[in-house]
Amino acid sequence: MANIVWCNIAVFLLVLLFLADNTIVVLDALHNVPNNIKNQPYRTGYHFQPPKNWMNDPNGPMIYKGIYHLFYQWNQNGAVMDVNEIVWGHATSTDLINWITLSPAIKPSRPSDINGCWSGSATILTNGKPVILYTGNDRYNRQVQNLAKPKNLTDPYLRQWTKSPENPLVTPNAANHINSTAFRDPTTAWLGRDKRWRITTGSQEGRRGLAILHTSRDFVRWKQSPKPLHYHDGTGIWECPDFFPVSRTDSRGLDTSSSAGPMIKHVLKVSLTDTFRDYYTIGTYDEVRDVYVPDKGFVQDETAPRYDYGKFYASKTFYDSVNQRRILWGWVNESSPEKDNIKKGWAGLQAIPREVWLDKSGKRLVQWPVKEIERLRTTQVKWENKVLKGGGSVIEVHGVIRASQADVEVFFKVSGLDLEKADVIEPGWTDPQLICSQKNASFVNSGLGPFGLMVLASKNMEEYTSVNFRIFRARGKSKEHVVVMCSDQSRSSLEKGNDKTTYGAFVDISPYQPISLRTLIDKSIVESFGGKGKTCITSRVYPKLATGERTHLFAFNKGSQNVDILSLSAWSMKSSL
C-alpha cells in the first residue's frame, strides 16, 4: 500500500511539474470539452477525437523523443467540413491511447496556404529533426506543397511550428502538367541510395490517378521526376497516398527509407474519392528507375484490397522506431445526418491505431489494435466450450459491466461434418457486401451462419449491430469453402435518418481451423477484426435504446448447424484520458 501511495504522489508531482510548463496544454485537454458534449451517449470513451467540432484526415503521425504525435484535419469553428477553415490539430501521447490536445500546429496565414492547410506527412530527417510537408490551398486556390519545422527542438511536445520562407516548395503549372486542383497530400519522404529524398503526391490527369514523384537533396528544392511512381487509368484522383516497405520474413515494421531488396515488399495505398474508400497494393519498388510495380494479381483500383471494409478513409501510417512497428491511423466519419452532427457539436473519430504487417502469404496486410489498448481492460467475463445450437440460438454475455464500452475476443469452431452442410456459393456471388446485404445476415436461417456477436444491443433486441460469419462451400467441391464476414447495421437504431449500410468482406481462412473475431465497442463505433486481423470492418451506429447501462451483448447462431464457442473473453473498458 505504501508503494502505491508513493507512486500516486510521484504522479501528482509530475502533473504539477507538467502544469507549470504546459498550462495551456492541460487546459486544452481537460476544460475545452463543453459540458453538453462530455456526457453525450455517442461520445466515445477510448477513441481519439478533439474536444469539439469537425475532424477528418489523420496527418503526420510520428514519434519524437518518446512522445507520439498525431496531427489531424480540424475545423476549429464548427462541426461540418469547411475546406477554407481547416487547420492542423495536434495531440500528443506517451502510449497512443491517452492523448493531450494541444493548440493547432499549422493554421492558414501565408499566401501559400491562406485558403486551408490540408493533409500531409511528417518525416524524421537523418539528423533526427522532424519536418512536415503539407498541402496548402493558396490565394489562387491552387494546391501547393509547403514545409514546416519545429520552432524549438528541445520541446518534445513540438508545440510551435514555423513555416519555411521558401514556401511553396512545389507548385503546379502548365509546364509540369500537374492539375492545380488535384495535387495534394504529400507522403512521408524516403531517402534513396543516391542520398536524395523522395516524396510522392496524389494527383490526376483526366481520369488517370497518379502518384507524382519529386526528389530533393536538401528538402527545400524539389525536382519532379520524369515518370510518376505509379499510375492507373479510370480511378480519378489519388488522395492521401501512402508508400512504405514491409518485411517478408516477420511482423516487425521497417523504416520508410529501408532499401528495397529480396526480403522487402512495398505497399502503395491510395484513397479514392469516387468510392470514399482506401485501397492498397503490394509490389516491388525499383530504386534505380524510381517506379513501383504491383505484384501479379494486384491492380491500383477498386478491385484492390482494403485496410477496412467499413468506414475508414484517408489513412496514414508511420514507423514507430522505438517499438519497431508500423502503425496505421484512419479517419472514421459519421453515419448520422449533418444536422445531428451540428446539434451534438462534433463529427469524426480516429480508429484505434493498428499495427500493420505483411501476411505470410504475401497477398494481404494483417492489422491488429496496438497492444497498449489492453491497458484499459477491466472486469473480464470468460466462457469456454459453449455450444451455440442451430436454429436461432441467442445467449447473453452476462457480467460485462460496460457493454457499451468493451473489448470482446471469441474463437468459433465448426465440425468437419457440419462444414459439408454449408450452403453452396453461386458463381456470381463475388461481392461480399452484397451477400451480407441481400442475405440480411442478422435474420436468415441457412446452413452455416450467420453466427457471431450482437453488440450495442437493447434488452429485447429491438436494436443491435450484428458482427458475424457465414460459411459457404463451392459447388461440387465439398472440401472447398468460402468464409464471409459481415457487419450488419440494419437494426442498429430505431432512428430513421442514419446510414445503416451493411458491410461485408471475404476472410481468407480455413473454416477447418478456429475462426477468430475481436470486436472493439465504444458507444457509437464498432471495430471488428476477423481471422486474427486478416479482415477488418468498422461501423458507426447510434442506438436510441441500447446506450449506457442499457446496453447488452449477445452471442448468436442463426444457422441450422451447431457452432462451438471454444473461448470468449469480454472486458469492460475504461475511458482514456
From TrEMBL:
Any GO BP: carbohydrate metabolic process
Protein family: Belongs to the glycosyl hydrolase 32 family.
GO MF terms, alphabetically ordered: hydrolase activity, hydrolyzing O-glycosyl compounds
Pfam family, one: Glyco_hydro_32C
Domain Glycosyl hydrolase family 32 C-terminal, residue spans: 372-572
Protein name: Glycosyl hydrolase family 32 N-terminal
Signal peptide range: 1-22
PANTHER family: BETA-FRUCTOFURANOSIDASE, INSOLUBLE ISOENZYME CWINV1-RELATED
Cross-referenced PROSITE patterns: GLYCOSYL_HYDROL_F32 (PS00609)
InterPro entries assigned: Fructan_Metab_Enzymes (IPR050551), Glyco_hydro_32 (IPR001362), Glyco_hydro_32_AS (IPR018053), Glyco_hydro_32_C (IPR013189), Glyco_hydro_32_N (IPR013148)
